[in-house]
Amino acid sequence: MALIKKGSDIDTRYEKITPVCKLLWRAFKLLAYVAAGLTALLGVMSVVLVFVNVSAEELLFTPYMKVVTENGVRKFDVCLGNGIEVLRAYEDVDTGNIKGAVYAGIFTLMAGLAVSIPVFNYLGKLFKNVGNGIVLSADNAAYVNYIGLSIMIGNPLVLLIKRYFNYALIKNFVDGDLRFDFGIDLFGVFLGLLLIVFGTIYGQACAAHKKETALILRDAKD
Predict the structure, then answer these.
(1) Rounded to whole angstroms, how far apart are CA atoms 163 and 17?
(2) Backbone angles phi, psi at 56, to 5 degrees
(3) Which residue(s) pair with 68 in the sheet?
């Protein structure tokens, strides 16, 4: 609240963000590298998984998939996400079913990480500039716009991928007539557009400051 409270320190209260930016910009750059590394690692895992040839039970390696016994009957207990947990007869589940569940998790996570890479990268650049006192720079406005564009495009895409794999998982484990409901989540679009608007206004402020500075310097020379 100290950053936004009103008072006589109006000229200095926003400067309190500078040490925060100095502290965090390296963290965001590191997160970008970590996200890129994890995306690459998951890509390798998805390729390796193609050649894995074991039984369905031997392929279980997460706490979300396990074999349970109920009333003397062995069953696969698989969490499909969105609060859905499926119990299916042991003999009705094969390696392909489990691989499908694993691939759904891998590709959904990869999509989320891929979107986070440019967001973390541009946040790091923005915070670095602000931390170094380079505030009224057109580059900063561009970074905000890039973050907004990444969210506007990436968020609906990630949610669409997640929606599809949820459908594929349920169809893979649940008998019945199912259809994929194609839909777009608009929250990410609106959030991205809002950031682009803010970035554009920020850019206009930077341009106006540059013109004013040029006029002051010209008048000083005259």
Answers:
(1) 38
(2) -60, -40
(3) 75
Inter-residue contact 18 to 133 (CB < 8 Å): yes
Give pTM, 2 decimals.
0.81
The total of other beta-carbon atoms located within 10 Å of residue 199's CB is 21
CA distance 7 to 13: 9
- From the first residue on, what is the mean pLDDT of each consecutive set of 10 residues in the chain (222 residues)? 51 76 92 96 93 83 78 82 78 84 87 95 94 89 95 90 82 76 81 94 87 69 62
Exposed, middle or buried: residue 79 (CB in 10 Å: 0-12, 13-18, 19+)? middle
Cα 98 from Cα 101, distance rounded (Å): 5
Return the pLDDT at 221.
Answer: 65
Taking the C-alpha atoms of residue 199 and residue 140, their distance in angstroms, rounded to an integer, is 8
Q: Which DSSP symbol is given to 45?
A: H
